[in-house]
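Worked example (supplementary).
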Amino acid sequence: MSTASIDNLTARLNRLPGIGIKTAQRLAYHILTLSNEDVEGLSSALLNAKRSVHYCPVCGNFTENDICDICANEKRDKSVICVVKDARDVSYLERMREYRGCYHVLGGTLSPMDGVGPDDIRIKELVERVENGKVNEVILATNPDVEGEATASYIAKLLKPFGVKTTRIAHGIPIGGNLEYVDEITLFKAMENRREV
Amino acid sequence: MSTASIDNLTARLNRLPGIGIKTAQRLAYHILTLSNEDVEGLSSALLNAKRSVHYCPVCGNFTENDICDICANEKRDKSVICVVKDARDVSYLERMREYRGCYHVLGGTLSPMDGVGPDDIRIKELVERVENGKVNEVILATNPDVEGEATASYIAKLLKPFGVKTTRIAHGIPIGGNLEYVDEITLFKAMENRREV
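After joint prediction of all chains, the assembly is encoded as:
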């Protein structure tokens, strides 16, 4: 049966995204069966991550150093900036191992419904980078949802006066996908953006 | 992008049951966006739960006191013992708010495949309770899977010489269930255990 400290742990776990009350309870009971070393390890991993990780002052990515590994890497092309919603998106794109430019993490997308305006995300910092640096291309890689599209259009319009090349990642049928299971909007995008072969 | 301490946190979270690598990564990134207070709260909730919770020496349930609340409660009927696989099962049965007896937590079920024999779970302690106490009924509430059924039969056979009433929780169609979606074995059990109305 649960005790006060099990209930507290369960409530804390339950606040994490995607962890419902049943999962939180299952995790809490599992944690009690772990060794002291494992529980202490998890507990200090939480504190260490929170303590040592901060935002890169250049791109807004997570880092433990003064500036992040990508901004510090001389082999990365500083003239190409890929704009993403959050730091997790950087790790997704890096998995590709193909992109050699750098990033700009917005820390959110425009969402008037949730009260998120242009000043609440790192758009000003992006404009400054374009203004000051030798930027040739800005790739808008926000998600293809309402907020992501709105944010991409907003930034594209804002960057127009600087004459920088602004691109949007392609939308279409995923590789390995099947026409039967692709939604109509994706299908429409795939048709619209068809290329001659 | 991930750093050493994000990777460490992700790896630690990934070891928890039901937390795959993608969920672990999502949680780790979410944790970095929490306030210091929230991260410290979660971190110490882990340590506190592990430090203050131990097994009740009577029934094997989790407790923060000398013996658990149920064993310590004078209103609970000590002559009825409900045998369950683990402490989580106690909290499920308590949710019913109907059962007034006490419990015996086995801490596992017999599973020769995994090398779990009668000496590895708290069967000896159950026999001692039946031998020494004024026990009228032992309710076997292990799960209706292979290991749970085998454990229930084993305990029933072991308790036979003591002349104590040994019962098994009923199996059948869940309330709100539908014949169409119930598996054949449950259906068979439901037919077999039919009652006159």
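Two points are worth noting when inspecting this output. The mean pLDDT of chain A is 89. The first strand of chain A starts at residue 54 and ends at 55.
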